Every structure is written in C-alpha cells, then in structure tokens.
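User: Fold this; tokens only.

Assistant: Input:
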Amino acid sequence: MQFILSQMEQVFMKKIKIVLADGSNLFIDALKLVLEKEPEIALLSRANSGVDALRNCIDLQPDVAVIGEVLPDLTIVETAKEIRRSVRGIRFLFMIRDGSADMLSLLSSMDSVGAVRQSCDIPEFLTALHSVIRGERYISAEVIEYLKNPFSDELISEDPLDYITQREREVLYWVSHGLTNKEISARIFLSEKTVKNHVSHILKKLDLSDRTKAAAFAWHEGLPLIPEDFFTPSKMN
C-alpha cells in the first residue's frame, strides 16, 4: 500500500499545481470544469477573495495562480503583488475585465505571465495557461487593446516609432518587459548611463512622462510581442 501511495504522490508532484481566485462562483466553476480535463494539471484550491487567494498560495505553494478581476476585498493587482511577495517563483494568469495603469505596470514587470480578457474562449484560456506554464509570456491582443485606453491621451498616433532610433526602440522593448536600466545595460552591452540617456531621449521624443507611460506606449504599438532576436547588432543604429 505504501508503494502505491508513493507512486500516486510522484504523479501528483509532476503535475502543474494551480489555484483559482475570483469572486464569482459561476466563473470559478466554469474554470474548474475546464482544468479538470487537463491531465497534467492539479487544481489545488479555489478562493472567492484576495485574502483567501493569498492564504491558499502561501499554504499550498502552487506553480500558477489564475486570478479573475471580481474580488470583493483586494484588487487583482493588490492580490497578485501580495502573493508575489509571499510565494517565490509563482506565475500568474490574469483574467482581465478593466484596464488600469497598475495592471499594465504589473504585466510589464513579469517575464512569465498571462493575461486574457475574462470573456475569452476556452482555447485561448488554455493557450495562455500553457504559455505561462512553459515560462513564457502571453498577453492577448484584446488585452493590449484594452489596456492602452487609459493612456490614449498621452499616446501619439502617426507612425510613432519613426520618432526614435532602432537602438532606442530596443531599449523601449526591454523597458516594456519591466527591466531596470541596469538589467537593460547587461542585456544589450551598454553602460547603465547610456541606457539612462536612451530612456530620457525616448520619453522626450514621444512626449511621455515616465517609464510606465513608455511601457503603455510600447504595448499600444505591439513592440513587446516581436521576437527578441529581431534586435541584432547589425540592425542597431
């Protein structure tokens, strides 16, 4: 009997462990039915509030937290930030209803994250989830379109990327992925001071007030979605 239990435990340990959080029982029940059909996934718990989601993540240490935006106590961003502080290495898939600067900033700060509209279909939900499981980023086109709206008054409209050089475009690409100047300098082999100057030039040329607005601009233009290897030394200005 002990041997059988050990085998079962090994199978469970190989599965991707997931927790769900949303204030709507109907929505959670629907996601639960979808996830139960995925053999490589183990659904550990469900929560109807941000506090319960945080508690479940601390207690159960899941691989992925799937968080909806209908939470009665904390916002989706507050919930994710608290979980991120408490559970090392956890990944997130966000089911978004409303755009916000905080959500854009949060997405920009994560390398492995998914975000889809809460009204998305099942295939897209699963595509996003499996991308996050693989350590990738999946931000749906609908989310990008939706998140740009709070910043529309600060985004320029006619061929905006023509205003910056290819090197500045590369720096903006990494800004949109949440990297600091120091991290960007190590990534593209420039001094931190040079990167800082590039960021200043980008903000001035595009008439944007800060890095968050620059990230919003980049997402608006779809810049973070192009392949990383597009930026090769031979293409730099």
